[in-house]
Amino acid sequence: MSTNRLPQRDSHRDRSTNEYTSDRDRSYPGDVARLNGHKLVAIDEWLPGTEPTPYEMDLTDGYEYRTRYWHCRKCSQERNHRDEFTTPCDNPQPATALEAGGYSIDDPRTRRALNEKLDVRFATVGPVYEVESESGATYEVDIEAATCTCLDFEQRQPDDGCKHLRRVDLEIRTGLVPAPDGTFSR
Predict the structure, then answer these.
(1) CA-to-CA distance for 156 and 162, rounded, in angstroms?
(2) pTM of this prediction?
(3) pLDDT tens digits for 120-178?
(4) What is the largest CA-CA distance in the chain?
């Protein structure tokens, strides 16, 4: 061992609590796998001390070591090895706002509801919302009665509602605007 080595700085120590910390505590290296319905991500974690070995003596002079484990993003189970996820994931992915509302992305009104600049406003507790369109026109949408004051709804009465009604429903489901009772869902 050389004596010309500079002393190592204890950057891994937290000065206030005297516990080991590191700016490398957890990293998500991007290793993602799917196994038995699990959506797994590899997590690298740096722990203080030396890596455990089956030998009685420690020949390293390290102050931290890397360990890796796997985490399921759906059910939050964690295992040391990816192959240990042998049972099917018991927490299926929740429905998206589109699926929950019964909308299809292939429907032109749904596409317009998602892509156009529509400003949804919730003024008072109740089922009525105001939607300002790109043209500057303002429409009233009653989410409980499933009605809108736009010409598309009044003249054609589409099955799943006009783009304004769909937009209000999707914004409620995603928590961007409150539900008619004034609470946010999510």
Answers:
(1) 9
(2) 0.51
(3) 998 788 999 999 998 999 999 999 999 999 999 999 888 888 999 999 999 999 889 99
(4) 88
Facing residues of 142 across strands? 128, 147
Which residue, 126, 136, 135, is CA-closest to 182?
126
Two tokens, residue 10: 């204890």
Tokens 């189970």 found at? 77
CA separation (Å) from 103 to 5, 34, 98, 111, 158? 66, 27, 5, 10, 12
CA angle, 72 then 74 then 79, to 5°: 20
Q: How far apart are CA 100 and CA 94, in angstroms?
A: 9
Q: What is the pLDDT of residues 11-58, one digit of tens each?
A: 444 434 444 444 444 444 557 788 888 888 888 888 787 777 777 666
Return the residue matching tokens 């026109």. Answer: 137
Q: What 3-state class would DSSP assign to 22?
A: coil
